[in-house]
């Protein structure tokens, strides 16, 4: 909780002193995002890994601090305005790590950042190729490391499709991208499940699907 308060004070200072065009400090903002995501993903805050009694006790006393800092990260991202492009594709990995935390409200609040990144890159380059390549690479790594689940796949699909379909220029390419990532996620999750299967044929078939 002490760390959370400190990070929030750091965030206030960034917004007040280091956000406008003349004083913008890329490295400070970068440090903030990496620090906040490291805080959110630390082992001692992953409540689903605790017994129900311990989890209830922590929630009762402190609430879910992952949700609190996650909403703060989301707001800080939107505060960046025209500076956002400086954080693409580097911030895709840390944001992905945050959205994969198995907390539904946190996921719903932070998955839309991906659409914002797509929109932002499209505004500057008329495509979102850097974002797309980065999320595919990082997703592979994260799912293999044990993160991600069926609920995440469904939310990712639903939220991003809704946003893309409302956008004049991203409707078609955005939908193609979302379908591609969801299909990849499906295959990566299957592959992870079957990794320990005794049946070599099943493992081989899943590997071919991922490739």
Which key terms come to mind for this protein?
211 residues; mainly alpha; 11 helices; 0% strand
Q: What would you say this structure looks like, in words?
A:
There is one protein chain. α1 (2-17) packs parallel to α4 (65-79) and α9 runs antiparallel to α10 (171-194). It is built from 11 helices and no strands. The chain has one domain. It has helices at residues 2-17, 26-41, 52-62, 65-79, 92-99, 104-110, 112-125, 129-144, 150-165, 171-194, 200-210. The protein has 211 residues and is an all-alpha fold. The model has no long low-confidence stretch (mean pLDDT 95). GO terms for molecular function: guanyl-nucleotide exchange factor activity; small GTPase binding. InterPro entries: DOCK, TPR_DOCK. Residues 1-159 form the Dedicator of cytokinesis TPR repeats region domain. It comes from Asarcornis scutulata.
Count of domains = 1
Span of the ends, CA to CA: 44 Å
| Content of β-strand | under 5%
Q: Could you tell me the radius of gyration in angstroms?
A: 19 Å
List the helices and strands and how they pair.
Layout: H1 2-17, H2 26-41, H3 52-62, H4 65-79, H5 92-99, H6 104-110, H7 112-125, H8 129-144, H9 150-165, H10 171-194, H11 200-210
Précis, in short:
It comes from Asarcornis scutulata. By secondary structure, the chain is an all-alpha fold. It has helices at 2-17, 26-41, 52-62, 65-79, 92-99, 104-110, 112-125, 129-144, 150-165, 171-194, 200-210.
């Amino acid at each position: 909780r002490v760390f959370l308060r400190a990070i929030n004070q750091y965030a206030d200072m960034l917004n007040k002193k280091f956000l406008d065009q003349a004083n913008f400090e890329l490295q400070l903002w970068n440090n903030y995002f990496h620090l906040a995501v490291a805080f959110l993903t630390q082992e001692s805050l992953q409540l689903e890994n605790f017994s129900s009694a311990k989890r209830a006790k922590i929630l009762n006393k402190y609430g879910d601090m992952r949700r609190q800092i996650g909403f703060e990260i989301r707001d800080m991202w939107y505060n960046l305005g025209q500076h956002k492009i400086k954080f693409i594709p580097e911030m895709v990995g840390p944001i992905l790590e945050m959205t994969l935390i198995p907390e539904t409200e946190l996921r719903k609040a932070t998955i839309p950042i991906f659409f914002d990144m797509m929109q932002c890159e499209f505004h500057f380059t008329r495509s979102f190729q850097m974002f797309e390549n980065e999320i595919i690479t990082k997703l592979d790594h994260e799912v293999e490391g044990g993160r991600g689940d069926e609920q995440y796949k469904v939310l990712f699909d639903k939220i991003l499709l809704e946003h893309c379909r409302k956008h004049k220029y991203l409707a078609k390419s955005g939908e193609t991208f979302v379908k591609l990532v969801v299909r990849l996620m499906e295959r990566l999750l299957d592959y992870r499940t079957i990794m320990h299967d005794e049946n070599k044929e099943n493992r081989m078939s899943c590997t071919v699907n991922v490739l």
